[in-house]
Write a structure and sequence with these properties.
It is globular, with a radius of gyration of 17 Å. The longest helix has 17 residues. The chain is about 40% helix and about 15% strand. The two termini are about 30 Å apart. It has a single domain, classed as 3-Layer(aba) Sandwich (Glutaredoxin). The chain is α+β, with helices and mostly antiparallel strands. About 30% of the residues are buried. The strands form 2 sheets. Strands 2-1-5-4-3-8-9 form a 7-stranded mixed beta sheet. It has a two-stranded antiparallel ribbon with strand order 6-7. Helix 2 runs antiparallel to helix 5.
Length: about 220
């Protein structure tokens, strides 16, 4: 465990990719790399929400019951939102525990709430929160409502009809192929967006130190 705690997120993703290269057939590796590359090539930073945008008064169903309101989360200062794909996503099962270890304690010191958001239904999201004992809120962005508003959701080009058993809409409970691209979003009082970092390649996400530098640049202590 001590070794894992000092690894960067990049190191952890590299280990995941190395394992896949050892165990996945070439066609599966190529398809995975191709989709990630396509999302990177299509990503337009100007097409997503920008600093200064004001978000509507949204709310999110939290794992375990209850509702998180954007107004209440940002009433006394900023809140950080981490978008992830779904509870069974291998990369998300690396990223969220990493953020729990390396990011959440520093956010607590700054009194900044952290919320992990996925379009998956709350009862399905309970799995990832309990598996890793995540100390921050995990909630559902119903129908990708906020992700669409931010311009970070996508659907794969290859969407067979009828969908096969175990397709993403079945896994998430949304009956849709749509997923968010992983992203980190800082929202301040008045629901004002201060910055949005999108990771079109889901195996390249920001390190905790980078996120803290962005936060401290927007809200210096």
């Amino acid at each position: 465990m001590a070794t894992l705690l000092i690894q960067t997120l990049k190191d952890r993703f590299a280990a995941l990719q190395a394992e896949r290269e050892r165990n996945w057939p070439p066609a599966q590796l190529a398809a995975n790399a191709g989709q990630r590359r396509q999302l990177v090539e299509r990503f337009d930073p100007a097409a997503v929400a920008q600093a200064g945008d004001v978000l509507p008064p949204l709310s999110f169903a939290e794992v375990g019951g209850g509702t998180l309101d954007l107004d209440r989360l940002t009433a006394d200062g900023p809140a950080l939102f981490i978008f992830f794909r779904f509870a069974g996503c291998p990369a998300c099962n690396i990223a969220l525990p990493y953020y729990a270890d390396r990011l959440h304690p520093a956010l607590q010191d700054r009194k900044i709430p952290l919320v992990a958001l996925s379009p998956q239904q709350p009862d399905c999201l309970r799995e990832i929160k309990t598996r890793h004992g995540l100390p921050f809120a995990v909630a559902s962005d119903r129908d990708n409502g906020l992700a669409r508003l931010l311009g970070i959701s996508f659907q794969p080009d290859n969407r067979p009809l009828p969908p096969p058993a175990g397709w993403i809409g079945e896994v998430t409970g949304t009956n849709s192929w749509e997923l968010p691209q992983p992203a980190a979003l800082l929202v301040g009082p008045g629901r004002t967006l201060h910055w949005l970092h999108v990771s079109p390649d889901w195996l390249e996400r920001p390190e905790a130190a980078e996120i803290l530098d962005w936060i401290d640049g927007s809200f210096p202590s």
